[in-house]
Amino acid sequence: MTTKDMKTYISGRPQSNLASSSEILNLTSSQVVKSELPTNITGGWANYINGDLTPITVPANVETKLTLDTTNGEVINQFLPFGVTSVWNSQTSQFDFSELKVGDMVDIRVDGSLTNSGINETFGLNLVSGIGTAKEFSLPMSSGVRFFSGTSLISRYNGIFIGSTEVRDNPAELRIISSSTASGYLIDIYVKVLSVLV
Questions:
Q1: Contact 168, 193 (CB under 8 A)
Q2: Is the pLDDT of residue 22 over 70?
Q3: Which positions ≥6 away from 44 have C-beta within 8 Å?
Q4: What CA–CA distance (Å, rounded) separates 115 from 188?
Q5: What is the dotted CATH code of the domain comprising 41-196?
Q6: Distance CA 174, CA 127 (A)
Q7: Using the 8-state DSSP alphabet, how is residue 148 labeled?
Q8: Of 16-20, 57-61, 152-156, 166-170, where does mean pLDDT reach its minimum?
Q9: What residue segments make up the domains of the chain, in order of their start?
Q10: What does the DSSP assignment read for 30-56?
């Protein structure tokens, strides 16, 4: 519908206390967008690309930490919300949420490679949070069954929230467990942060 068609349509409708057609048509796109956005949330994202794709051995039924070293990879932190400089510690291969606030939301996409040698193998990928505290806990990120041996690229997307100071002030890491010996590595991690303004 063109601007002329819109004016004709609006002028033909019964008059009310609503804004006039000229007022509606003179709104800029930025004004419309601003009116639809929540005013108490700001957001941003980061991406961490692994510079070491050496497969990590995952012994059968042993929860194994997955590492991601950006030394020879890439770090994109400049699009995080104001006041947040990073959410990943490459030296420890752990998430660092210390610059976030309790109530903030974090979406995580994990891209990796998994190789299994048997059939009907089960695996689970977990985010272990609050490490080192009495309230340490594990959140399932992904699980599955590998019916045949081989190597597959795997991508999983999940969301969490910073529900306590234990989660905010202590590291979190990715751990994988497999019913049979396997190997794998992280390719990259994408993190979206939605920060609640309170």
A1: no
A2: no
A3: 79, 80, 81, 84, 192, 193, 195
A4: 17
A5: 2.60.120.40
A6: 5
A7: S
A8: 16-20
A9: 3-36, 41-196
A10: HHHHHHHS-SSEEEEEEEEE-S--PPE
- Is the per-residue pLDDT at 197 higher than 50? yes
Helix, strand, coil proportions of the chain in percent (round to 5)?
Answer: 15, 45, 40
- Looking only at the bridges linking them, the beta strands covering 41-49 and 105-116 are unpaired
Answer for the pair 38, 52: CB distance below 8 angstroms, yes or no.
Answer: no
Placement of tokens 């796109």 in the chain? 29
CB 159: neighbour CB atoms within 10 A? 11
pLDDT tier at 37 (50, 70, 90 boundaries)? low
Q: How far apart are CA 69 and CA 53, in angstroms?
A: 9
Contact residues for 95 (Cβ-Cβ < 8 A; gap 6+): 87, 88, 89, 127, 171, 172, 173, 191
Which token pair is 129? 């949070």
Cα within 13 Å of Cα(51), Cβ side: 10
89's CB contacts (< 8 A; 6+ apart) are 95, 96, 171
Based on DSSP, count helices (H) and strands (E) in the chain, helices before strands.
4, 12
What's the token pair of residue 197?
Answer: 């303004």
